[in-house]
Amino acid sequence: MDYTGTELARCSRGWPILNRLATGLALGGGALFILLVGMSLVSIVGRKLGFGSITGDVEMMQVGTAVAAAAFLPYCTLVGDHLRVDLFTERLPATTKSRIDAACECLLVAAMLVLAWRTALSAAHLRETGDFTTLLGLPIWIPVAAIVPSLLLTTLCALWRVRAALGHARYLGRREQMAVDHGVSA
Predict the structure, then answer these.
(1) How many Å separate Cα 50 from the centre of its chain?
(2) I want to staple 53 with a disulfide (CB 3.0 to 4.6 A). Which of 43, 65, 111, 124 is the partner?
């Protein structure tokens, strides 16, 4: 079951806020990717035409891609568009699937918290050591720190999905129980 749109909106008033934040971050990541592609094209064409490439284009591509890719994580989590293999669960009852989904989302919450924590520590360490990129002299801690908000928002989105999956499991459980009480198949 996909816990998006109307189902999540019914769970709480928090959905519009998370949805706006996650969507805004994803759109920002998409815009950054478009800028990076444009920069790369200008650099490649300039090199081929003899004007030379943009200084530090590879550094900007590496740094920008990391930040942009992380910006998509909250939205993908919120709408449930992560890669999933349900080969072993496709024949299970919907209630059981919802509980398994909730457990998986709990694991994602834990993983994102650890990633956010360690990434923030890495950014602080990089700031202390004064590491910077070779050609542009960009302090490396800045793009590393820019990833942390995406990881934290992904954590909140995964928590939201835990709540939605458990709510869905309760709903299905009540529906199945009512069907048993009334002698009707669910």
Answers:
(1) 40
(2) 43
Would you give the distance in Å from CA 14 to the centre of its chain? Answer: 17
Do residues 68 and 29 lie in contact, with contact meaning Cβ atoms separated by under 8 Å? yes
Judge whether residue 8 has pLDDT over 80.
no
Task: Give me the domain span that covers residue 148.
Answer: 5-181
Residue 109 lies in a domain: yes
Ramachandran area for residue 151 (φ above 0: left; ψ -120 to 50: alpha; else beta): alpha
Phi, psi of 139 (to 5 degrees): -60, 125
- Give the pLDDT score at 30: 97
The pTM for the full model equals: 0.84
Is the residue at 32 inside a domain? yes
Q: Number of structural domains, the chain?
A: 1
